[in-house]
Amino acid sequence: MLLGRTAECARIATLVDDARTGRSTALVIRGEAGIGKSSLLQYAQSVAGDLTQLRTHGIETESQLPYVGLADLFRPVTDHLHRIPDRQAAALTGALALGPAVAQDRFGVAAGTLSLLGAVSEAGPVLVVVDDAQWLDPYSLDSLAFATRRLGREGVVALFATRDTGEAASRLAPVETLTLRGLDPDAARRLIADEPLPPHDLAWLLTEARGNPLALVELPALLARGGHRPDTGAPLPIGEILARTFHSAIARLPAPAQDAMLLLAVLGPRPLAGTERVLRAHGLTYASLEPAERAGLMTVEEGAYVFRHPLVRSGVYHGASAVRRWRAHRTVAHALRDATAPTALERYAWHLAESGADPDEQVAAALERAASGGPGSLTFPIAARLYAHAARFSPEGEQKAGRLLAAARAAQAAGSLDEAADLLDRALGHAAHPRTRLDVRQLRCYVDIQRGRPARAREQLRAAVDEARRVDPGLAAVMLGGITLTELAIGDLTAARATSAESMQITGAFGDTPAALPVRLLHALVELLGGDADEGRALLRELEKPLAAPDVTFPYPVSGVGGLCYLAAEELDAGHALLDRAVHAARAASTVGLLAHLLGTLSVVEFWRGQWTSALAHADESARLGEDTGRVIEVCRALAAQAKAEAALNRESDCRRHGDQAAALAASADLPMDAARAHGALGLLELGLGRFEEAAQHLQAVREFSVANGRGDGLYLSWAADLADAYAHLHRTDEAYEVLRVLEHEAGRGHRPIAAAAAARCRGMLEPADAERHMDRALRHLAGVGAPFERGRTEFARGEMLRRQGRRSEARRWLKRGLGTFERLGAAGWAARAAAELHAAGGDRVPTGPAPLDGLTPQELRVALAVGRGVTNHEAAEQLFLSVKTVEFHLGNIYRKLDGVHRRAQLVRLLSQSGDP
Length: 917
Hints:
Elements: H1 6-20, E1 25-30, H2 37-47, E2 52-57, H3 68-74, H4 86-95, H5 106-121, E3 126-131, H6 138-150, E4 156-162, H7 167-171, E5 177-179, H8 185-191, H9 199-209, H10 213-224, H11 238-251, H12 255-267, H13 272-281, H14 290-294, E6 298-301, E7 304-307, H15 310-319, H16 322-335, H17 342-354, H18 361-371, H19 380-392, H20 398-414, H21 417-428, H22 434-450, H23 454-471, H24 473-490, H25 493-510, H26 516-530, H27 533-542, H28 544-548, H29 558-568, H30 572-589, H31 592-608, H32 612-629, H33 632-648, H34 652-669, H35 672-688, H36 692-708, H37 720-729, H38 733-747, H39 753-766, H40 771-782, H41 788-804, H42 808-825, H43 828-840, H44 858-868, H45 873-880, H46 884-897, H47 904-913
Helix pairs in contact: 1-2, 4-5, 5-6, 9-10, 10-11, 11-15, 12-15, 12-16, 16-17, 17-18, 17-19, 18-19, 19-20, 20-21, 20-22, 21-22, 22-23, 23-24, 24-25, 24-26, 25-26, 26-27, 26-29, 29-30, 29-31, 30-31, 31-32, 31-33, 32-33, 32-44, 33-34, 33-35, 34-35, 35-36, 36-37, 37-38, 37-39, 38-39, 39-40, 39-41, ...
């Protein structure tokens, strides 16, 4: 037990015990330098002697080398790689420089990280220790954070130690945190009880150290060696006090020892032979480090010298003059100059850059050749770094801009959107050729769309289109397509129609180019949403074949746009088939960013098909993956879709929470359509609960947005039928007729059976004398469409109308039908309304219990749906980015919660009965 850390040690011991019982947990230990984070990690290792232990630590000089931390962590268990899914094994093998690289985004590596931890845990519990996470490379840290958030029943405990602030702290923010404070005065005195200090020095030490254990241990040594107390005035940060302390000790060492320590600080941990070669190149040997060992600044571990504490390394490096640092980096770069492996080349380039070397086209060209090796030669993160280093050594001008652009493309492909944006901004400052500048600006805008900044992207693309017309009309058409995409994301259909027409005009003049598919597809979408729906549907028919196998490298998510086209055309089965295939392909390739987009759109289609369990599970997964990839727009879209499904299912608290989150995020990211969608979800919730005034308030906000942006009513942003329903119940007849006109206009734009049915139903509600004719027409429109909620609402509205006309026997027949539909869907609020009407019509009050799947968590729903499709546990784990043990655990919970379900076949049957395949 550590002195003064009884509670903290007990907490860690509990986590280790949890791992022994098969429960996975994670903890971030945060605190200032020297506060005892590493000691707690060592304590964890001491009490976890029976666990498989994996350990790595961040090194400041390696913090920009992709996957170097992950390679160190997994070095002892690479023999387990063959036990994880092939695609993930290939991605992880390439990232760890153990085999050919795979060109995919970094979340393929993250998924592999999760699977590998799961595979290792099959032999017993696992302890993962990451020290100095503030210096771990971001790719490794993101992979571990991704995996940590998805651990469940593997028996893995992951511990991270990091400083209080910085990028690592924000990346690990979702993980439970333990913040270390200074030792209490009693523990501090006990720690230094053996130090022979005069009372005045003791008082100074306790005041300055503020309970920091490292300061309490190191500062007495400074005083004992005749050092002077720092004349601080106001209290200095502990890190600065310790840095001064270590610098004072380093400065008293012989020059060869200081030089050898500087080389080791620059080089980082390396095999003994490699380290000794670098020392000899500088006229030094390991013997040069003996004075540092005697001074307690370095220790010997596994036959090699290591720094006693990271602050010693930092003090050595930052305490040296710039000239000495440059010389050390040049020595290390010289030792790596003949490297051929991508990771070694990246180190060579970084050390050369840090040595103050001038631009050198020969070096730049060599790095560019290594970076452009193509798929199968290196990963996107490594390619991005090599291209960026090539740009660093390029002379000013077009080549520098081109290499920065190439680096940005690789970073975008890796899923590092902020890095890509920074590289593009730098590239624009060096680009002189108009085509290069256009390429840079175009990619910058697509990155902004992904980051949830469509308004900025639209402005930037619009500013570049005129120049693109002169340089490359085909590129201008693609840019206009990008503008159309941003306008659709914002919800401005008026602007989108005009822009799309402009892009089609250019495309038509140049024939069937590669850019034609997405431009024509976007035009089909805007026509289906608010123009000539027949033209949009005809164009969609022409594009069905290329849609079946879209170019995944194109910046637009073509399959997602195609799914929205089918949704707007009210061809739900075709849209579901397209999106389901695209989701399956994205899962297989671990393209997580694209998967987040596709799942969000699939969720909307599933809502209208009555597959609410699937819709809810896929929206939840989309939101999680959007957060993982930094795609704000996907998070916003998914939260709105989640709220809509929860509204229909009468999950009131969840609906309000997700609706409020979607609205707040939409406001901060300038995504007003998603804020409107959140209001629409809340309006549907209130309508199902019979709170018509509140429903009308939410839905009126959606109407105002739609009118302002040239939109009518559609399945993606639906409001008119719900608002007319609310107005009818509030006896606001004139307003209801105004809304009905919108619905009838939509129903008249081509074959739109769902809109036509809603319009007929609402007219029947407003015209009781002719209600049956209108309701019959509504049900005829819905025959064979596969929109059960709309059918249930029509059956309910018909029964409600008949009951108010005193035709109780006929009313009961339709109310029973509506009630049965609502119960099959799990629409608890609507079922309660139908049951109350049925009772008022003289029928027996039917208890409306929860739907069978209502008790499952979103994670359990996703597992149930995967298993329901007939996949194995291993396949489900791969598809859902979970470990096999977690899938097995959730499946056990599913069987426990669902009455009469104990086998896969029974689960498949239940899902089929609930409408979810």
